[in-house]
């Protein structure tokens, strides 16, 4: 029937022919080589690849932390290459969430003040209901007044996740968000990431060396030498490990050893 079809979903992250070169003519490194990819809203994507394959560069270019040498990046429909530095900073603060391996919390601030910092930096007044809801979502309602030093690593990463969620961002980018956590705590944080995708339709892009972590994603994208060389949809840990072994040298030799775990979605 004509006219009754839904319009095609607009990708929330779109890279078109993105390359990122470092160095000069004598020591040129092509960290990203003509990468094009579209990520739909409400999806969880893991990015994997050997050490030096361009994962961090991909994440930094996709999130507007770095500018490609050529090509374009659209985030939430905005061509971020067209934004000047100040506008890009504002856009990142309002529309993008970040979760890093080092939790990057401010030690002098309590949980609520850490979580609401991005809102306050943007000049917005945090709404109590929204803060309560994200703290509930990450299971920290009882820790509102604790300082980071009084929390476990997993709890600190949940504060960082709440801080990323509180602005209702178009995308959350994670750089090894569970890299500093033990297996059980990592599983709890990954389950929360998964839940935010399934329950509130969050979009997540996460770089990881760990096949167990990657298996929480809807899609795993593999990079090698700055290029996307394959992807797996809803893969198992074993499928990811097999793909990694085919790709050869990996930065973290322990990653392959961690694959005996079953992933619970
Ligand atoms: N600022 C920089 N100056 C020069 N070369 C760089 C710079 N940043 C990255 N590179 C190079 O670009 C390539 C890709 O680096 P990138 O950090 O994106 O890889 P990665 O896959 O994240 O690696 P790892 O898993 O070891 O963190 C590497 O060869 C790296 O040495």
TrEMBL record:
SMART domains: AAA (SM00382). This is ABC transporter ATP-binding protein. Keywords: ATP-binding, Nucleotide-binding, Transport. The keyword Acyltransferase does not apply. InterPro entries: AAA+_ATPase, ABC_transporter-like_ATP-bd, ABC_transporter-like_CS, ABC_transpr_LolD-like, MacB-like_ATP-bd, P-loop_NTPase. CDD domains: ABC_MJ0796_LolCDE_FtsE. It comes from Streptomyces cinerochromogenes. Residues 13-250 form the ABC transporter domain. GO terms for molecular function: ATP binding.
């Amino acid at each position: 029937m004509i006219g009754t079809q839904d319009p095609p979903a607009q990708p929330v992250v779109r890279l078109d022919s993105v390359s990122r070169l470092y160095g000069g003519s004598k020591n040129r490194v092509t960290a990203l080589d003509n990468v094009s990819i579209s990520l739909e809203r409400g999806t969880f994507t893991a990015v994997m690849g050997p050490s030096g394959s361009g994962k961090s560069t991909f994440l930094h270019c996709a999130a507007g932390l770095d500018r490609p040498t050529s090509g374009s990046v659209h985030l939430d429909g905005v061509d971020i290459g067209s934004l000047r530095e100040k506008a890009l900073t504002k856009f990142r603060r309002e529309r993008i969430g970040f979760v890093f391996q080092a939790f990057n919390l401010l030690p002098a601030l309590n949980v609520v003040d850490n979580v609401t910092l991005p809102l306050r930096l943007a000049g917005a007044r945090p709404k109590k209901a929204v803060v309560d809801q994200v703290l509930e979502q990450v299971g920290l309602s009882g820790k509102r007044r604790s300082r980071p030093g009084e929390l476990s690593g997993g709890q600190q990463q949940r504060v960082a996740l709440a801080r990323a969620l509180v602005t209702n961002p178009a995308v959350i980018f994670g750089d090894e968000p569970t890299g500093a956590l033990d297996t059980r705590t990592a599983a709890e944080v990954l389950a929360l990431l998964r839940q935010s995708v399934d329950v509130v339709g969050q979009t997540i892009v996460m770089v990881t060396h760990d096949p167990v972590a990657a298996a929480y994603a809807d899609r795993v994208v593999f990079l090698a030498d700055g290029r996307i060389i394959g992807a797996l949809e809803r893969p198992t840990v074993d499928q990811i490990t097999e793909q990694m072994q085919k790709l050869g040298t990996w930065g973290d030799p322990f990653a392959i050893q961690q694959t005996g775990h079953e992933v619970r979605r």
